[in-house]
Write a structure and sequence with these properties.
Largest sheet of chain B: 7 strands, mixed
Strand order of the largest sheet of chain B: 7-6-8-9-10-13-14
Helix content of chain A: over 70%
Distance between the termini of chain B: 83 Å
Largest interface: A-B, 35 and 37 residues
Strand content of chain B: 15-25%
Strand order of the largest sheet of chain A: 1-2
Strand content of chain A: under 5%
Number of helices of chain A: 11
Radius of gyration of chain A: 19 Å
Order of helices and strands of chain A: HHHHEEHHHHHHH
Number of strands of chain A: 2
Number of strands of chain B: 14
Structural class of chain B: alpha/beta
Oligomer: heterodimer
Shape of chain A: globular
Number of helices of chain B: 13
Shape of chain B: globular
Largest sheet of chain A: 2 strands, antiparallel
Chain lengths: 293, 383
């Protein structure tokens, strides 16, 4: 029961990582850049919800406000990155994204202070799942993760829109010759990423507390999941996101008798696991070998 | 009224106004003739401990304004604040700015032990600066510098008090934040138990990084350990509240919770009063002297709540300001003379007779045991 509870708690944590990894994946697929500002955009969405909730507005309005702020921040980042995307300067775009994320975090810290904020006004109610305990926010997180990952995978692999995205990822110039308007695709992608990030920010803030820097660690884990899962394989990213959280958490939870692994080793274990997986499957967890010309 | 009368009235009015301005100017000139001593203050004005720093600032501003406004004052005090952010790096930067840019010789602070521990070697290296902290309590401050003094008790006292409470249980678990104050407290508890109560078994000893907000898996691990008592050792503020909220999600888990100052705060306890019910806290003694309570109420009425710092640290701040400013006036920038006076003399303040006796901490302050009941901390009176 104990390990099952750890597993369930870790699934919630893994879903935060998955959703940010999905954002990183979508941006990379469409623009061939790594966009670390997704962490800060998630935090912006969370603080957007917090601000509107403080004004005593109904929860649904606060959620809409958080989503709108997430989308706005994401589209602002697109405006900043676009020149570097067009010039195919991924390193400069990475720097620009880092700068954007840092500036966004600093702005949030100035506006709200750097101490943590609780989006939930009181202790979270929990319910029983086969003898395991889960908060309603945790349940919402799992459902959101399943729905978003399911929709993303469905779009990417089953729908024409997904074929367009994969075409751009495979060969941008050919996609353009075939009439795919990349600017519109980028706009829609960044808007969707903004929505996803805002959802993460709000769920994380409700589940625990939110600080201006709260997006940094999930973003790093999401980036790790993207690398380990395979930058061109969303299914691998889903598996990697959960593996990189679940395995370390379970290793830490296990009782080894007189020896135990402290929780502060969690990040180290995630990185060690990532290295091992990259050594075994360097192209991605579920990637198949392809012929290179 | 004739023109002549109007002119005369106008001239008289102008004369009175000019005389009034002159006397005001004279008063201002007179007060600015008094020597002004600058004291640098290092405290967290932002971040998780910002609420504590802000209350400390309120107390210092209130008292210094009183001292400056006293017609019999022989000197003026100017406080120069820098944000220590409750971390060593920021406190060290604040110290450098105050001493090297502003040329200040006298430091009040840090508030957090991590701030004071960071500036102690800098004070030691700089022979012309002295630091007095009203609040820092890490036992590592003892002997850290000859010119750093704390008007607080040492956490050695609190740690031994907590170990005393935990010694009543066969198995205990600890969860501590990775922070100078919390780690020092944990170390004192573990060492005291090992030395004096070796039969007490530590079945789980968890730690978490500063900024952690999700403790659910760690709490499950502590629950799984089956400990009879659990020592909760977060730093004050958001971390402590998050930990309590997540404890409240586990109502079926009822070991004896023991903690420290972080939960000696009705505002945090109000978030989850049932989870905190019966929690034993070991903290500084409270002050209930009527005159002090009235004085403190005056600060609260003018400035804001002092719930985070509580009565003891309000008193220690007031005593530190009084003693320090008196010594500065007597000895000016002769930090060696001030150091000797602090190390050897006895002073009188809200906390009673205060003497350092050659130590870094004020001697003779004992910890108090407090029990949480109905979301409020209540001192346990001796039988």
């Amino acid at each position: 029961m104990f390990l099952a509870q750890i597993f369930l708690n870790s699934l919630v944590l893994g879903t935060h990582v998955l959703l940010l990894a999905a954002g990183l994946y979508l941006v990379h697929t469409v623009c061939r850049v790594i966009h670390p500002a997704v962490g800060a955009i998630a935090v912006a969405g969370g603080y957007g919800y917090y601000l509107l909730a403080q004004l005593d507005l109904p929860s649904w309005l606060a959620v809409l406000g958080g989503l709108a702020i997430g989308v706005g921040a994401s589209l602002a980042s697109l405006a900043l990155l676009r020149p570097f995307i067009l010039r195919q300067q991924p390193l400069v775009a990475l720097l620009a994204s880092l700068a954007f994320g840092t500036a966004l975090e600093a702005g949030i810290a100035i506006a709200f202070g750097s101490e943590g904020r609780f989006l939930a006004s009181s202790v979270l109610p929990t319910f029983d799942v086969l003898g395991l305990r889960l908060t309603y926010v945790g349940l919402a997180t799992l459902v959101a993760g399943a729905v978003i990952a399911g929709i993303a995978a469905g779009v990417l692999y089953l729908l024409p829109a997904g074929r367009i995205l994969r075409a751009i990822a495979q060969h941008r110039e050919t996609a353009e010759v075939l009439g795919i308007r990349q600017w519109r695709v980028q706009l829609v992608t960044f808007a969707v990423v903004g929505l996803i990030c805002a959802i993460v920010g709000m769920l994380k803030g409700l589940q625990t507390a939110i600080t201006p820097q709260a997006g940094m660690l999930p973003m790093v884990m999401g980036f790790l999941a993207l690398i380990v899962g395979g930058m061109h394989d969303f299914r691998g990213v889903i598996v990697a996101a959960y593996l990189l959280v679940l395995v370390p958490e379970l290793l830490i939870a296990i009782d080894y008798g007189s020896f135990s692994i402290a929780t502060s080793w969690q990040l180290v274990l995630s990185f060690v696991l990532a290295l091992i997986l990259l050594l075994i499957r360097p192209r991605g967890l579920l990637a198949t070998a392809t012929r290179t010309t | 009224m004739t023109l002549r009368h109007t002119l005369a009235a106008g001239l008289l009015t102008a004369t009175f106004i000019l005389v009034g301005c002159q006397s005001v100017a004279t008063d201002e000139i007179a007060s600015s003739d008094l020597p002004t001593y600058k004291i640098g203050v290092i405290a967290p004005l932002s971040g998780d401990a910002g609420a504590y720093g802000q209350e400390g600032k309120n107390i210092l501003d209130y008292r210094v304004a009183e001292l400056n406004a006293d017609p019999s004052a022989a000197y003026q005090i100017e406080l120069v604040y820098e944000d220590g952010k409750c971390d060593g790096a920021s406190a060290a930067a604040a110290f450098q700015k105050l001493t090297e840019v502003d040329g200040i010789k006298h430091i009040l602070g840090g508030l957090c032990s991590s701030e004071t521990l960071a500036i102690a070697p800098l004070v030691e290296a700089n022979q012309h600066v002295i630091a007095v902290t009203p609040w820092s309590s890490s036992p590592d401050i003892e002997g850290a510098s000859e010119r750093v003094f704390s008007f607080s008790y040492s956490d050695e006292v609190v740690g031994q008090g907590i170990a005393d409470v935990l010694s009543g249980y066969k198995t205990i678990a600890l969860i501590s934040e990775q922070n100078d104050y919390n780690e020092a407290l944990r170390r004192v508890i573990v060492e005291t138990l090992a030395a004096s109560h070796p039969d007490v078994q530590i079945v789980a000893d968890e730690s978490f990084a500063k900024g952690t907000a999700d403790f659910r898996n760690q709490l499950e691990k502590l629950k799984q350990s089956g400990a009879e008592a659990v020592f909760l050792n977060p730093n004050a503020g958001t971390t402590a509240e998050a930990l309590l909220r997540q404890l409240a999600e586990m109502p079926d888990w009822k070991p004896q919770f023991v903690s420290q100052i972080s939960y000696n705060n009705p505002d945090i306890l109000a978030v989850a009063p049932r989870a905190a019910e019966g929690m034993i806290l070991v903290d500084s003694p409270g002050l209930s002297d009527a005159e002090f309570v009235a004085y403190r109420d005056g600060i609260i009425a003018e400035k804001d709540t002092l719930n985070n710092l509580g009565t003891f640290f309000t008193a220690s701040a007031l005593d530190a300001v009084q003693v320090y400013t008196d010594l500065i006036h007597q000895h000016g920038n002769d930090v060696e003379a001030i150091r000797n006076a602090l190390a050897t003399q006895t002073f009188r303040g809200w906390l009673g007779e205060l003497s350092f006796g050659g130590h870094s901490f004020v001697q003779g302050i004992e910890a108090a045991k407090i029990v949480v009941h109905d979301g409020k901390p209540k001192p346990v009176t001796a039988e």
